[in-house]
User: Fold these one by one.
Assistant:
Number 1:
Amino acid sequence: MFGQMAFKQTKIITLTIGAAAAALSMAAAPQASAGVTGCKASGGKQEVGALVGGLIGGLAGNQIAGKGDRGTGTAIGAVIGAGAGSAVGCNMQKTEAAQAVGGIYKSGGYRYAQNVEAERLVKMDHKYVARSTLNLRASATTRAPRLGAVSSGQTFQALGRTSDGKWILVGQDGVGVGYVSSAYVYRA
């Protein structure tokens, strides 16, 4: 009876330490693409993956570690599990983002929706606001097909600008979805 109770308490303590280590690793991670919370695609799968991975990793680390090192094994397993779960979740988010724009391709270090032409761009990663409703174009010219619009007052992600500064590539979850004229936007 006492042995079963001690085993259950050990499991609860292991899960608690695993959850704490996973949360700590998420909070301490840098806000970069490789960090636990820095996925360039929106969604909550990365955070959930990190939490689940941290719990499973903590449990596995506890079981693998020797009797005297269970706490260390749990913490190390939780951090490794959180990182692995984070990567899986981020990949899932990126796949969903690509599907949302009808597929993507890569060119010049950028990811583009299938219906958007790649241009030579100066990299930027800022938020901008549209001064008026703007046409979203397939390439950096007014003669390009209209793909949609950016509404007046809408804040959007800017991935890059053309070398002449006249056009900005609008991003959605890190994917270029069209170009707007830079004359009608301001930095948020």
Number 2:
Amino acid sequence: MEKQISLQVDGRQRQLAVDTRTTVLDALRDRLGITSPKKGCDHGQCGSCTVLLDGRRANSCLALAVAHDGAEIVTAEGLAGGGTLHPVQQAFLAEDAFQCGYCTPGQICSAAAVIEEAAAGHPSSVTKPGSDGAVDLTDEEIRERMSGNICRCGAYANILAAVRRSADFEHEAGPAQQVPDAEITGSPTAEGMPAHREDHQ
């Protein structure tokens, strides 16, 4: 059985007919050609499919597309704006926080959400009782909050540094400012990154 749904993906309104059993991940990858969310475990255990779903991070392999008709989805591709990388993306490049890159889009989406969650005062299981307002993103907090995103290459030390770096940037500059990080401006790594294939149907 198919149902017509509408999704706003990375700022673009998309209409598609999906089987009612289709996950958000499969709708993005197979129907819309948006390949940054990766299919890793397909059981919500590795985090490689993480996207921002109506402003909150979610494992897209566990979410049914029909249950999110009308939703706004942001993938790692959609975080950048106006030709400038998002501060989290900049930090991942500056800290070399990836190896094979398979988990990186999910790590980046999760990291962006972690910073917003902490700024909004949402506690984790390691947040000290009585914390008011924004939660300080200590290494312990970052490790706990990012624990749902697995890196099979083991780049955790650099991922931790990247999240810490981008959290410091957001704190100092504010989330609305996407100023290029001086350490990666003109970086051949950044400039040489190929664009993801997009389906314009």
Number 3:
Amino acid sequence: MNENDALNLSELSDGLRIQNNGQAAQAVSGYAQDVESGDLRQITYFELARLMERASRRFSGLIRAALTKLRVDDIGPAQAMILLAIGDSELSVAELLERGHYVGSNVSYYLKQLADGDYIDRVASQRDKRSARIKLTAKGRQLRANLRDAAMAYERAVKRGDQDQRMLETAFQTLHELELAWANGSRFGV
């Protein structure tokens, strides 16, 4: 990646500059420090994507721990995320796919597990009998509420003030902009 391809996030967060190198890194003042050599270098898009993937796995670990604490052992973090995505809505599988950006075959498997566990109801659509509408059962709504309570308790434990909230909002905005840019890049080319 050349200098022109680097994403400049300086307007959004402390002059962080992203460029490609590919080594294990630790953040230090807007740069990464190579863990093995101690050298400072600029962070890359690839490293950012790897960090997002690791963060997602860590978040799945938090959900798994919450499910264990709630004594829920018939579903995993992926299914719990689908419960959270469904929310109070009644939606089609296609709407769920769009809302959560899931892979279709995975969602079918997850929905079957959720239906078998009595967390969701699948109701045939009135207009198209081939299509199903999905909504949470009372058991699903209760688990969703318990997971949201666990998430709020965790947020209260780690959030130290308004600056943390602003940093969270900045991170969300930045990642959302990257998601849109990467989606457009994959659809229409760079």
